[in-house]
Every structure is written in C-alpha cells, then in structure tokens.
Target: DNA and RNA helicase
Amino acid sequence: MFSNIYPNFHKGRILKREMLESLRDYPRQLAGLYFQSYSDGIVAGTDVRVEAEQLVVGCGIVKHGGRLYTLEEEQQVPYSATGKETVLKIRFHAAEEQSDYTVYGAELVLDEEVAGASELELGRFKLKEGAKLRSEYQSFADFATEFNTWNMIHAAYAGVGQRSVHPALMRYFASQLLSRGSTNPYDIAFAMQCMSQEAVDRELILHYIGIRLGMGYKPYDNGQIHKYLGRILDDVQGGNRRGPELRPGGPRRMIVE
Model:
C-alpha cells in the first residue's frame, strides 16, 4: 500500500538504526521514483559555459546505469586549440567500496573520442589555432557550425523512455518559429511544448518532423533532427506559414498562397 513514514524523535525514546536509515533513504528513494521512467542522460542543469581558456560545467543531475549522480559545485575543464573534434564527457567509474560508503564516482574528461558505454556527452567543438571558442549563436543553423563553436546537438539529454534533444536547442527553435510568424497549427502547438517544458519527448519531435515535412515518422539521430528542424524554419521563412487547414472530423485541405 502507499505510505509516508517519518520517524518520531521523542525524549526518552531509544534511537534505533531503522529510524536513521529511513531519513537517509527517503530523499534517494524519492528521486529514484520521480526519475525512474527517464533514460540515462542529463536530467537537470549541467549547463556548459564557455570561457577564454576553460569550460565551466554547472551544477546538475545526470543518470547513468539507472543511477542518479549529482554535481554540487561548478567544475572547470581547461581546453586548447587542436583543430580536431574534441568531446566533453562524463566518464563513470565502477563502484568503490569504502569502510563507510559505497562510492559511484564520475569525472569530466575532454578527448577526441565519441562517448562510450560508460560515458555521457555534454557537447563538442573543433577549435582552430588562434581562434576563440564561442557559444553565442547567430541562427539555428549556427548550432552546427563546424569550427570554433560550442556544439550541444549531440548532448546526451535524458527523456522519458529514451534520450531527448537539449532543451536550449529546442527553445531556440521554438523562439525562431514563433518570431517568424508561422500560423501553421502544428508549428504553434509544437513551439508551445518546447517553450513550456524542460525536455521535449523525442517521439513528439520525430512525429512533428514527419508530419510537418510530409516524410512520415523515422528514427532520426540528433544531427538529423537539427537538420530537419532547420528545414522547417527555412520553409516558414520562405513563406509557407499556414500549412494544412485542420477540420475536426473532416479531410485535410492544403492551402497554397
């Protein structure tokens, strides 16, 4: 049955081990239950800030192997220009048994290999010698600029059942979609979803792309998702803003301006 049990610490009562264990386990159990349907990946926070000579990873929560990990203080990771694609990742270690604790540790690493089974990607870049790494984007397409730009497209963001796309990328897309004046009902509904929640369900993103571009549902990867979302923005910019007229219970009719 459902329950909410809290120990009572009264004067004269014997302090039992079970009472202390209930306080220890409750926050962990609550967090585990809340995020149990999420895939492995970034759950909250862990935003990356680009500075002159280092990447700063903010506090946050990630999930790996069904287990939650927290970063309680910002961490700095120095970087340099190599001209090669460099990936910022979280690398998870095997459990370490200590006298008082079992420690599940992880560290931030920067190398030229894609994330493996025991790693989660936070982002990547390819920096030329003498250039400055930037994270301010001039357009939605700019997120995929090859050189000197922080790329979050492939960040492993957690979602319900499967990984999603970084919320910052989806909010930027939604903002561009609305600012360009699209009146397509699919565009408006999807943009509202992107603006109102932390991570958009991957299934929703894939169905939206399939319906909006008339290509049907396909399991695109993050790079392809970015490409096709960019195509939708180009479509809106080019004047095809209205799209199909929806009539409840009736056939759809395409209106061409």
User: Anything to note?
Assistant: Residues 243-251, 253-257 have pLDDT under 50 and may be disordered.
